[in-house]
Amino acid sequence: MTTARPRAIALWLYAVAALVFVMVVVGGITRLTESGLSMVRWEPISGVVPPLNEAEWHAEFEAYKAYPEYQKVNRGMSLSEFKAIFFWEYLHRVLGRFIGLAFALPLAWFWVRRAIPEGYKPRLLALLALGALQGAIGWWMVASGLVDRPDVAHDRLAVHLGAALVILGGLVWTARDLTAHARGEVRSRLTGFSVLTLLVLAIQIVLGAFVAGLNAGHAFAEWPLMGGRVFPEGVEWLEPLWRNVIDNPVVVQWAHRWWAWIAALLLVLLSVRTARESGGGAPRFVLLLLTAQIILGIATLLTGVALHVAVAHQAVAALLVWAAVSCAHGLGRPGRRMR
Questions:
Q1: 32 plus 165 within the same structural domain
Q2: Domain range for 225
Q3: 256 labelled binding-site residue
């Protein structure tokens, strides 16, 4: 007999979302330690096994030496130094494969057991497809740094991070829908205000990825001004003008600084409205995380992009997405029941 298990599936999705959060943090460390180009081949199966002896390590190192990052940036690095950057990229890739299995295998089990409630199979398959696509996006990003410029393209980095957070948001939303289903409530819907808030937050995160990819955080290590002014003097403008908010490190840092306040205002309003209309703990988490994120953003600049501060800044951004999606979900189902 078919027995839907929405609570069990929701718990599984939350666990996968937690793994995606860890993946985002490891990805941030990989970027900030300049480790992302240490593995120059994409081997989805055999790449799970790292070099196991000195001969294999030397072969991997020799492969790395054939590419621009070694030739233009790291020429003369030792094998032990190479092992240090290899570790983070290897961990990032293996964790991605583990997340794929942690999603696909339980999905297959729930499917065979006919435990998935009606209407949720297409959404779960879409999340699985997004996860597979994310692996391809990751290699597409890495490949951009293996040609001439020894750095990944910042726009591809933004796509990679954005896709990870879309997956995170989708997992959290679906888990909350399933939890509501177990209580006999209808699925939530995205309100217009929630869409606006999440879109503004997404733009802020994309700008943050541009800052990271362009190393724009080093342009001005001061706050709130830049070079003693709201907008710094002597900026070399790119043509056409729209490119500056994507490719100009100074303009990108300026936009990330000030767009943050628009995102913060909308997140506060989302939190207040959700608390008033549906309650729950998510609104308080949004306010707590938002406060921490503002402090960490300023600290990232003032410390010259210190590794531990910058990683914490990215980690809190992912948690803020989780909490904001939870708020949006609560706002979209204020006490409605299934009929």
A1: yes
A2: 188-339
A3: yes
